[in-house]
Amino acid sequence: MRPETSARAFGSADVQVAAGRLKGNAHRTPVLRSSALDAATGASIFFKAECLQRTGSFKFRGAFNAIAALTEDERARGVCAFSSGNHAQAVALAARLLGTTATVLMPEDAPAGKRSATEGYGGRVIGFDRYTQDRMALADDLAERDGLTLVAAFDNFDVMAGQGTAALELVQEVGTLDTLVVPVSGGGLIAGSGVAARSLLPRVELIGAEPQEGNDTALSLNLGERVRVTVPRTIADALQAETPGRLTFPLNQALVDAVLTVSDDDIVAAMRLLFERLKIVVEPSGAAAFAALVMNAARFAGKRVGVILSGGNVSTDQLALLFGPRQEDS
Amino acid sequence: MRPETSARAFGSADVQVAAGRLKGNAHRTPVLRSSALDAATGASIFFKAECLQRTGSFKFRGAFNAIAALTEDERARGVCAFSSGNHAQAVALAARLLGTTATVLMPEDAPAGKRSATEGYGGRVIGFDRYTQDRMALADDLAERDGLTLVAAFDNFDVMAGQGTAALELVQEVGTLDTLVVPVSGGGLIAGSGVAARSLLPRVELIGAEPQEGNDTALSLNLGERVRVTVPRTIADALQAETPGRLTFPLNQALVDAVLTVSDDDIVAAMRLLFERLKIVVEPSGAAAFAALVMNAARFAGKRVGVILSGGNVSTDQLALLFGPRQEDS
């Protein structure tokens, strides 16, 4: 990753600036409620439906804010990114809307729908092998060769500020919350959301949700330093970070109260509940925060809980597999 | 069906009264947009997402309004209804919220999820055979024996007024529309929506959408009188009316510009698009209006089109069947 040459403070003012840039460009996504899910869990849940965001995930917020923050000269040369899918789509659409071009490195095993959607938004996609190639080195080479500006998926203050607008809108709409539960991959969404939420609700509890197989942030917070796990094999394809971000981690050390981990089965069960009761399409990664709530319901009982449903980019083919008759493991 | 003893005018004032009763009780559902679906169809589409309504369909609006309009004495005795599912759930929840009880006749082949949801809202469910038994006679017997007030699914002005609030909210939120497309079963949603929309947009075109196998309203409007079809066999289980309503039909004769019919395959294709691009769960009946737009895209090109997505009560099991690998017809 390209080193940041100057450290600077990151705070709620950055999120406010992002909110101004996103106004009229990003959707103000609805906050959904379900009395049945409240009754089933014992909590009062306020779902921020970022699956209904442009490009199908919260990632559009950060990508748009970061590209809008570039100089005209940088935008004239174009941007690049690496992503398993949601950040890719977000960068491609944001680049097009802001009059520039996007080149995106995507792992060869990224969901086909995410790749074709990225191309549909006008992005140029280059594949790589997630399990053997160093995506950061590839992206740096690309940025250097073509003069492109790398829009990092999470380790970028403008990206974090954009992501924080999701929580800002949620708190503005529902008022007080006891707890906010946010899925964690590189940690940009929870860092931005934590800063935004705490600026309005200083005592709100901030809980992360990670896949059991990709618990790099939980491990790192426990150890007090960034640890790296092997590339997680999980259906939560957007939560396959191997290590917390260099910029996000110290923020999350200060902000995050706990990280809960969930299995793939927990995630599918949560997706079923969201489909059948909330009537929205949530991808596996997008259901992780709600899965953490369901699997730890006693912890949240009686509380007003905000849950960020971070994305909905799952194909009907994948849905049919996840929800169809159980196959024997081979 | 119980005869109405006094004819009365039905108009936008009734919808306004319903809007007042529903405030704080029904969800003000979001209006969703998709630039990809706009590009694919050539229309500017404003989706009113009634799948996100309480009980998973617009039916809650009419049921709540009708039960709220009863006298205290009527509410003390309880209500009854017959429904293949969405009206059943709506009546059950509205009855509970308004402090009364609901007895619901449901066809034995109604989706299991709709039956269990009705029971979950506290409704007492009695099954009947949709293909051999006369549900209206059964409901009348029940109403008479137990002193219950029948809340008809569509042939009731308070129900129609409640349904009309969906279109009222849509027009209030998006301003002008050239066309409004609404699914049609008994005709209550389109009658109420037509009255509400025309009160604000006198020239808006009003298009109905029906299953090919259940085109009773299309046939009836063409012939100028109510005709009866055999019980339609379609995946659109909420659009299986055999004949237009006695009260809804004359309204719809005056209001509706055209009815378009769609096949089950058209509906599944529309559901796929809504899932993958709009990220919401729409049941087959709920996708009928969008299917009609997609299958007749040239007709809507360049227009601002409101589409009511009427419900989302489909189980993940059914989804897996609809979206899974194609089975050979047996």
Structure description:
The structure is a homodimer of 330-residue chains. With 330 residues, chain A is α/β, with parallel strands linked by helices. In chain A, 45% of the residues lie in helices and 15% in strands. Chain A is built from 15 helices and 10 strands. Chain A has helices at residues 12-22, 35-41, 59-68, 72-77, 86-97, 112-120, 135-146, 157-174, 188-200, 216-223, 248-255, 264-278, 288-295, 297-300, 316-323; strands at 31-32, 44-49, 79-82, 102-107, 124-128, 149-150, 179-183, 205-211, 258-262, 304-309. In chain A, helix 1 crosses helix 8 (157-174), helix 8 (157-174) packs across helix 9 and helix 12 crosses helix 13 (288-295). The longest helix of chain A has 18 residues, at 157-174. The A-B interface holds A 27, 30, 32-33, 35-36, 51-52, 54, 56, 113, 120, 272, 275-276, 278-282, 312, 315-317, 319-321, 323-325 and B 27, 30, 32-33, 35-36, 51-52, 54, 56, 113, 120, 272, 275-276, 278-282, 312, 315-317, 319-321, 323-325.
Question: Would you spell out the secondary-structure blueprint of this structure?
Answer:
The structure is a homodimer of 330-residue chains.
Chain A (H helix, E strand, L loop, with lengths): L11 H11 L8 E2 L2 H7 L2 E6 L9 H10 L3 H6 L1 E4 L3 H12 L4 E6 L4 H9 L3 E5 L6 H12 L2 E2 L6 H18 L4 E5 L4 H13 L4 E7 L4 H8 L24 H8 L2 E5 L1 H15 L9 H8 L1 H4 L3 E6 L6 H8 L7
Parallel strand pairs in A: 2-10, 3-4, 3-6, 4-5, 7-8, 7-10, 8-9
Antiparallel strand pairs in A: 1-2
Brief description of this entry?
The structure is a homodimer of 330-residue chains. Chain A is α/β, with parallel strands linked by helices.
